[in-house]
Amino acid sequence: MPATVVVGAQWGDEGKGKITDHMAESADFVVRYQGGNNAGHTIVVGDERFALTLIPSGVLNPTVTPVIGNGCVIDPAVLITEMETLRSRGIDPDGVRISNNAHLIMPYHRKLDAVMERYLGRQQIGTTKRGIGPAYTDKFSRQGIRVQDLFDPKIFREKLEVALREKNLLLTKAYNQLPMEIGTIADEYLDMAEHIKPHVTDTSQLVWNALRDDKYVLFEGAQGTLLDIDHGTYPFVTSSSPTAGGVCAGIGIGPMEVGRVVGVAKAYISRVGSGPFPTELDDEVGERMVEKGGEFGTVTGRRRRCGWLDTVALRYAVRINGISEIAFTKIDVLSSFPTLKVAVGYRSGDETYDEFPRQQRVLYDCEPVYEEVEGWSEDISGIREYDDLPPQARNYIEFVEKLVGVPIATVSVGPARSATIAK
Ligand code: GDP
Ligand code: IMO
Ligand code: MG
Questions:
Q1: What is the domain-level CATH number for residue 276?
Q2: Is 41 annotated in the active site?
Q3: CB 409 within 8 A of CB 423
């Protein structure tokens, strides 16, 4: 059975956690393939709310094996705490599987993330300060330390020593910080290794076997298309490949293994952190989206910037990921807006754009070209059948569907697992 990918089609926080958890009801494996604890995936089951940062959203389903692939970066202290928190809430995390090849987030990565942002001043990216960028930088400059190194103390200390030689120079000479002690870090990490060891395996082989055994494998993206290191609004992006293409490298399977790509998009759009945002609303309408949508970050608590749905960006996400269907979330938040606007193009000077512009400058100085559709006043959060939605809501969904050219197969009308409509 070909695998399914759930991917963020905007700037993150589209509701991937909710949609993944909903789809996980029939899945056997839920696999993270990139990112780390910069992600914040909120899942609501009954009266309980879970905010997962590193462990795949499938963990709430007892029949699912949650997998953290080699493409992820792992802060072991966060992983252990997340597993303990789940256990204390009656969820068994023993089945979590972690790649031996995933890279570790080290204390100097977190420190560097924070000081580099401070030094950037007004140019800062607005990262989550979890050490994500510096950890991926070390991976690609071949100075990273991997999960498997934790189980060979001699190699671990050697690699740590090499890394610290450079990092301490950077911290002390470039950023005016105190140096970090090898002994303290080594003791802390080697101690954590014992907790992690039972979970570590060759996750590529695990997923390969699952696919051969006709199991349902669901890949859960973190972040979103516009935060992708290659295809996003660089440099205001994360340091990994959240797009569907990231799956193959991030777990170690071939592209023919994927048969379905579900793009998760909010019925409006939000972004947290810096960077261009053509449909951003700096007015009471945007404020209402923040309030009604509870648009505050799961990880950092930061207020998310909000704006009207951007179908130029959404069409771009369809293309970049090969999205075969859309899960359209938070449409309940748009109830009682008298009219809804949808960006169908951008205008900059004499030029109009109906495709995502090649030159990023356009995203800063363009005006969105909007089409307006009628809103609805009813609360739709209790509706479970597509045909019971107000005609204006169906019209909005079908209007967007036509603009982006792929079906909206799922509509989400609330944070709860059950607040999901199959179209
Ligand atoms: P993710 O990072 O893509 O998993 O999204 P987040 O969990 O960071 O943010 C989405 C927020 O919206 C969470 O608080 C969810 O509980 C909530 N949510 C998800 N789907 C819906 C929906 O259809 N309606 C409403 N009102 N909230 C939703
Ligand atoms: P989920 O999976 C929204 C943003 C940060 C910042 C930029 C780089 O919950 O959708 P990083 O710490 O990754 O180096 O920060 O990316 N960012 C997210 N925004 N949702 C996320 O994850 C994000 N993860 C990172 O705000 O702008
Ligand atoms: Mg989130």
A1: 3.90.170.10
A2: yes
A3: yes
Q: Tokens 């359209």 label which residue?
A: 328
Same domain for 118 and 213, yes or no, is no
Model confidence over 161-178: pLDDT tens digits?
999 999 999 999 999 999
51: Cβ contacts below 8 Å, ≥ 6 apart: 40, 41, 42, 298
Of the three residues 211, 231, 262, the one that is the final residue of a domain is: 262
Give the three-class secondary structure for 300: coil
Q: How many structural domains are present in the chain?
A: 3
Tell me, yes or no, whether 115 and 223 share the same domain. Answer: no
Beta strands per DSSP E along 191-255: 200-201, 217-220
Query: Is the model's pTM score more than 0.85?
Result: yes
| Tokens read off for 337 | 């807006």
Tell me which of 41, 109, 199, 231 is the catalytic residue. 41
Main-chain phi, psi angles of 40, to 5 degrees: -140, 105
Q: Give buried/exposed letters for 9-40 (b at 16+ CB in 10 A, else e).
A: bbbbbbbbbbbbbbbbeebbbbbbbbbbbbbb
Indicate if ligand 1 lies below 6 Å from the C-beta of 220.
Answer: no
Q: What are the residue ranges in the chain where pLDDT is below 50?
A: none
Q: Domain residues for 418?
A: 265-422
pLDDT score at 298: 81
Strand intervals (E) in 132-276 = 200-201, 217-220, 258-266, 269-271
Q: Note whether 275 and 355 are same-domain residues.
A: yes
Statement to judge: residues 288 and 410 lie in one domain: yes
Check if 37 has its Cβ closer than 6 Å to any atom of ligand 2. Answer: no
Rounded CA separation 353/282 (Å): 23
Q: How far is the CA of 314 from the centre of ligand 2 (A)?
A: 18
Pick the closest to residue 248 from 140, 322, 192, 144 (CA basis).
322
Residues 296-301: contacts with CB within 8 Å, 24+ apart? 297/13, 297/40, 297/272, 298/13, 298/40, 298/41, 298/42, 298/51, 298/53, 299/37, 299/38, 299/39, 299/40, 299/53, 299/128, 299/130, 300/128, 300/129, 300/272
CA of 412 from ligand 1 middle (Å) equals 9
Measured from the Cα of 129, ligand 2's closest atom is: 12
Look at residue 300 in the predicted model and tell me its pLDDT. Answer: 83
DSSP 403: H
